[in-house]
Amino acid sequence: MSVTKHAAAILALGAWFGSAQSQAGTEKTEKKNITFIAAESSADGGSEVRRELVKDCILDLPNPDRLEPQVTSTAVFLQGVNGEADRKEWVKTYTAKLDVNYLNYQKEILIVTTRSVQGQEPVIKEVEKKLRRKETFASNPAEGDAFAGRSDRQYYFTKPENAAKDVKARAKIWIQQQAPVMCPEK
Questions:
Q1: S-S: 113 plus which of 64, 122, 138, 148, CB 3.0-4.6 Å?
Q2: pLDDT-wise least confident of 6-20, 70-84, 124-138, 171-185
């Protein structure tokens, strides 16, 4: 049934009530709860859940001076080591990796709405979470102490201490940058 047919039916029903009241001679008032649903609406009773993030901050970060990276080595055959065209040799190169584990706090509001004929208030609930997070860092070989090749120059760490020092410096900078998103003390 189209919207105009619904409107015509409601008007006809109102006219019928008006004529019935005039025939009885007494005034009678009735309150009716009438819900008008448009043709494209659905009242399937399904629910919709929406999440809104209210607060997101870091609870705790490790001390950067106590972090120890994992250092791995690889043997690589290099040509033109450190700019010497005749120098070709196997070199042991190092890379370092460091995981920074920290605790994150989130507060969300869950809003559950139900589609139904009778209007129903949404259900609102606050949810607090503590989540473990991890940020991974790797040493950058471009900061290495040795290089090979001429036009396509590649850099390498030839000492494990240098690779570890590079990755620790990267992690320390990241930890210092997180100060604005730390949770306030309660």
A1: 122
A2: 6-20
The DSSP code for 40 is: T
CB 137 within 8 A of CB 98: yes
* 150 SS3 class: coil
DSSP 8-state class, residue 140: -
Give the residue with greater pLDDT, 104 vs 29: 104
Report DSSP letters for 14-34, one per residue. HHHHHHHHHHH-S--------
Residues 142-156 pLDDT 10s: 999 888 887 678 899
- Dihedral, 15, 18, 23, 25 alpha carbons, nearest 10: -170
Strand-pair partners of 60: 103
Tokens of 167: 């990755």
List beta partners, residue 157. Answer: 94
Are the beta carbons of 73 and 94 closer than 8 angstroms?
yes
Q: Is the dihedral of CA 180, 137, 64, 133 positive or negative?
A: positive
Residue owning tokens 């007494």 = 26
How far is 37 from 89, CA to CA, in rounded Å? 82
Mean pLDDT of the chain: 80
Position 80, amino acid: G
pTM here?
A: 0.63
